[in-house]
Specification:
The structure holds two protein chains of two kinds.
Chain A: H1 2-37, H2 46-49, H3 69-81, H4 89-95, H5 98-109, H6 124-136, H7 147-150, H8 169-181, H9 191-198, H10 201-212
Helix pairs in contact in A: 1-5, 3-4, 3-5, 6-10, 8-9, 8-10
Chain B: E1 21-22, H1 35-39, H2 67-80, H3 103-106, H4 114-118, E2 123-125, E3 130-132, H5 134-144, H6 162-174, E4 199-200, H7 201-216, E5 223-224, E6 230-232, H8 250-260, H9 277-287, H10 302-309, E7 319-320, E8 323-324
Antiparallel strand pairs in B: 1-4, 2-3, 5-6, 7-8
The chains are: A mainly alpha, B mainly alpha.
Chain lengths: 223, 330
């Protein structure tokens, strides 16, 4: 009986997969095409973010592979409407349709992030300070541990708190600067802007170096 | 005036679409006039810090090596990762960690720091009407805030058990250099004056949606990582503190929220707030207008449990959104 049950279940599961396949692959195909070949007036994402979506540490361009899909859609929307100001990305995001944003976000969300951290040439003392900030915060300055919202490994929590482990240090630092200057204002409830404004330049350097020294952790569910 | 009088304005609210407006908190009560209230008297407020600031606990990097240091480290982990700690987790009957209500590993001023509590025990507590040791006080935290009755062990740790020794070693270590027997600046939560307007659960719901739901969820159930570790604690329902925990009191929750939440916007050590006094009270009332695990001091009915144990600023056995609270959740 047991073998038969398993066979029936397997058959059901398989038929279900077959039924789903066209929708999954259609989205992924459209997303993949945009990512690797670009679209009308849009250059391929991979030309800056890497063929595997691993980002570009030297240029400070973020890893997209394994990020939460809803988070990436929100970012494309924000880049298009200016609440996340970025002269390079604004025209690209603006020319993508709502569906294209979803397609490309889903494509990158499903890519496996690189196992090698972007890293950087950083003094051990700085890394140590970064680790303390990341895991415990600095309560004298009103800074909570980064991991209390972004997850214990910096893997991200749902669509509101992105994965920051394995992101290039320069990218993370640029974002902290953007929160500080107000050129990025798309955080839920102003939470990240508030934390960024409490960070000194030295602490920003230390904590971003720490997260860049970690391997990326894919952000899966939010519960 | 009796203690119950301050709760009566809540009763008789009929329209479930018009959540309770809690006029009861708009006037003050002289606690000394009433025997019942004296039993439930709120803790004395901590004084403001002098020019030397708050007590500075040692750095967590400087916990010594050796058996004492090992005990301190174990106590620290039991405090921040209560649900993962090999011993402490047996006594957790909900989804909370100690560090959820005592931020910064229990080391931050105005976030009920453990160095503030260490030197004022043994202490008489109205809550159970006798002198409590720190050991017993922590067991009380397990019973109420951690809902130990619903845990694997079925109750709090045994007196003088290893996990309680370790936690006390951690508290003692964090209080190094602090005077004994003094109400230290930064101890407990800084009380929030009752606002001018009445406390409103419905306004509190708006504050919650705007400021809290992104982390604690629309249904108050918190957020968890894929491995089950808690990221944001549940605020009501089976995973939350129970009806006997200090945090179910609206004044206590308002005081915690005011200088601690939202995380990263408020700053307890700098005593900076992100919410107004009114918002803190309103949202504290909204959060505590939901079911949570039953009061372990259950007296057989909501009415008698209310009468014996809830003569303070809470919504136990009050009707909000058409439901009389106090059924419990589990």
């Amino acid at each position: 009986m047991r073998g038969r049950y398993r066979f029936t279940c397997g058959l059901f599961g398989f038929s279900f997969l077959i039924l789903l396949m066209p929708t999954i692959s259609a989205a992924n195909e459209a997303g993949k095409k945009l990512a690797l070949q670009g679209g009308e007036g849009v250059q391929p994402c991979s030309s800056c973010h890497g063929a595997q979506g691993g980002g570009n540490a030297a240029a400070g361009w973020p890893r997209l592979a394994g990020l939460n899909a809803d988070y990436m859609v929100q970012q494309l929307n924000a880049l298009a409407n200016g609440t996340r100001s970025n002269p390079l990305m604004a025209p690209i995001a603006s020319s993508l349709s709502e569906q294209q944003r979803k397609d490309v976000a889903e494509y990158f969300a499903n890519l496996t992030p690189p196992t090698t951290p972007p890293g950087g040439d950083v003094d051990q003392k700085i890394l140590k300070r970064g680790k303390v900030l990341a895991q415990r915060g600095d309560w004298q300055q009103g800074i909570p541990a980064c991991t209390s919202c972004h997850g214990l490994k910096g893997q991200g929590v749902g669509a509101a708190f992105p994965s920051i482990a394995g992101q290039p240090a320069m990218y993370l630092q640029n974002q902290i600067k953007a929160w500080q200057s107000g050129s990025r204002q798309n955080d839920p409830n102003g939470l990240m802007a508030s934390v960024a404004k409490r960070l000194s330049d030295e602490d920003s350097q230390a904590v971003t170096a720490w997260f860049a020294s970690l391997p990326a952790e894919p952000s899966k569910s939010d519960q | 005036m009796t203690a119950k009088d301050i709760k009566h304005p809540l009763r008789g609210i009929r329209n479930p679409l018009l959540p309770a407006v809690l006029a009861l908190f708009a006037f003050s009560v002289n606690a000394q006039d009433d025997e019942t209230l004296t039993k439930q008297v709120e803790l004395e407020q901590a004084p403001a810090p002098g020019p030397e600031g708050y007590h500075q606990p040692p750095s967590l990097d400087d916990i010594p090596e050796g058996p004492f240091g090992d005990s301190v480290r174990s106590g620290w982990q039991a405090f921040v990762n209560t649900r993962q700690h090999p011993e402490a987790k047996r006594f957790v009957g909900n989804k909370q960690n100690c560090g959820n209500c005592h931020l910064a590993s229990g080391l931050a001023a105005n976030s009920a720091p453990m160095w503030g509590a260490w030197g004022i025990y043994p202490k008489y507590r109205g809550k159970n009407d006798h002198v409590n040791t720190m050991d017993e006080r922590i067991r009380g935290c397990f019973t109420y805030s951690m809902n130990a009755g619903g845990s694997e062990a079925g109750g709090p740790p045994e007196p003088d058990s290893q996990v309680l020794k370790d936690m006390q070693a951690f508290f003692f270590w964090s209080a190094k250099g602090a005077p004994i027997g003094e109400n230290l600046p930064g101890r407990g939560y800084a009380a929030v004056p009752k606002p001018e307007n009445e406390i409103s659960v419905s306004r509190g719901e708006e504050v919650y949606q705007d400021q809290c739901a992104v982390c604690h969820g629309n249904d108050g159930s918190g957020k968890f990582a894929d491995d089950g570790r808690q990221i944001f604690p549940p605020l009501w329902g089976a995973g939350a503190y129970n009806w006997g925990a200090g945090m179910h009191r609206i004044n206590t929750a308002a005081a915690f929220i005011k200088y601690n939440m939202p995380l990263g916007k408020a700053s307890p050590v700098e005593k900076e707030a992100a919410l107004t006094d009114q918002q803190a009270w309103d949202v504290a009332a909204f959060i505590n207008s939901h079911e949570r695990p039953q009061d372990p001091r259950w007296e057989g009915s909501k009415a008698s449990t209310d009468e014996k144990w809830h003569t303070h600023q809470c919504l136990y056995n009050e009707t909000v959104r058409g439901h009389t609270l106090g059924d419990g959740a589990g």
